[in-house]
Amino acid sequence: MAIEVKIPAVGESITSGVVSVWHKKSGEFVNAGDALFTLETDKVSTEIVAEKDGVLETKIPEGQEVKIGDVVATIDDSKSAPEEKKTEKPPEKKKEPEAEKKRVGEKEKQAPPPEKEKPLSPAVRRIVAEEELESERISPTGKDGRLTKGDVLAAAQERKSVREAASLATPVGVTVPGVTAPPPSVEQDRQSADGRFTRKRMSPLRRKIAAQLVMAQQTAAILTTFNECDMSAVQDLRAKSQEKFTKKNNVKLGLMSFFIKACVEALKAVPVVNGRIEGDDFIQNNFYDIGVAVGTERGLVVPIVRDVDKKSFADLERDIADFASRARDGKLKIEDLQGGTFTITNGGVYGSLFATPILNPPQSGILGMHKIMPRPVAVDGKVEVRPMMYLALSYDHRAIDGKEAVTFLIKVKECIEEPRKLPLDF
């Protein structure tokens, strides 16, 4: 019986993805639990595994975009695994003279044993597939001779540089030693005749991010309101508590946990920001699952910190650190990205002073944090230099009025400027 392999639902706002690489070939026998292919979406890359034993028949090629529910392969579970061929007993070798045996033995001692091929991590395998690299020709620098993301990214950049140099110095159709030209059907970087620009195809993940951002702009009435907050009190509290907090919890006290707690207080004060529009209905969420945007080499992902209102500052910092580490290593799971009610993004870590964040559908609000900069401000009628941060709240104006948005942002500002209003537990 042929069992259909369909694209599973991988998130509330995700409707399609790209089959970036097949890990099993058509006609190959697969076991239940074997990784069949990697699905790239705008949020995450995930491996889809076989649910049954059987012979795989693929229906679509690598690089094709598919929708949730599409059939991409079948597994015939009526067929069993091929039996291992019995190895025939090798014929007896003729006795060799002692001198010849000694010479051969010395040769065998000198020759190093063949190295076992090291398995590639999902992130490395994805980059190798996207960049069409030959992993066995890349020098590994990782532990036990494993390839790292840095190794394959460097190899991709080096190959690109060599091709660009070759294209500048060599007429079309001339082969350059050491440079393997891809077949005409493969998309590749193309440089203009005058060398003023290079055209290249975006990666599947980058294309999906672009589509998602456009979709957000087209399906919501996005408006942004701004404010600023004095970070003095939070900085002082962190400085006084950092040593004790780190020693007790084995994790540093960062800024993000303060903003998550401040957002919870603001969401409780203005519940509509914690909801979403679904068709002609408005869904009011009565729980607080906050998405924290994390930038990686492959793009932006938003893992969800669950039930933040019930977690301590230490729990929040551990969750944030764990998500950031797994996002960079490409080890996030689909469930890590599902079900958020509100999002926080911190462009300040990259030096952004002022920006308007884009909504993360189907959510109705997103808070943008920015760089802390010392600026002159009026304090009790006097000019003082204080560490200031601009805050930006982008919201869906279809569900949230301006008054509610401003009230939300002022509540966040108050909680940050007077952190004693937060449920501090350290």
Question: Topology of this structure?
Answer:
Elements lengths: L1 E5 L9 E7 L6 E2 L4 E6 L4 E5 L4 E5 L6 E3 L3 E6 L21 H13 L11 H10 L17 H21 L20 E2 L6 E2 L4 H16 L2 E9 L1 H18 L6 H14 L5 E4 L2 E4 L5 E3 L1 E3 L2 E3 L2 E2 L7 H16 L13 E5 L18 E5 L3 E7 L2 E15 L5 H16 L9
Parallel strand pairs: 14-18, 18-19
Antiparallel strand pairs: 1-8, 2-4, 2-7, 3-6, 4-5, 6-8, 9-10, 11-21, 12-13, 14-17, 15-16, 19-21, 20-21
What's the shape? globular
Can you write the helix and strand succession as a string?
EEEEEEEEHHHEEHEHHEEEEEEHEEEEH
Structural class: alpha+beta
Radius of gyration (CA) equals 28 Å
Q: What's the helical proportion of residues?
A: 25-40%
* Span of the ends, CA to CA: 60 Å
- Unreliable parts: 165-187
Question: Helical region count?
Answer: 8
Instruction: Tell me the β content.
Output: 15-25%
What is the overall pLDDT average?
Answer: 83
What's the number of extended β-strand segments? 21
Assembly type of the shown chains? Answer: single chain
The main sheet comes to: 7 strands, mixed
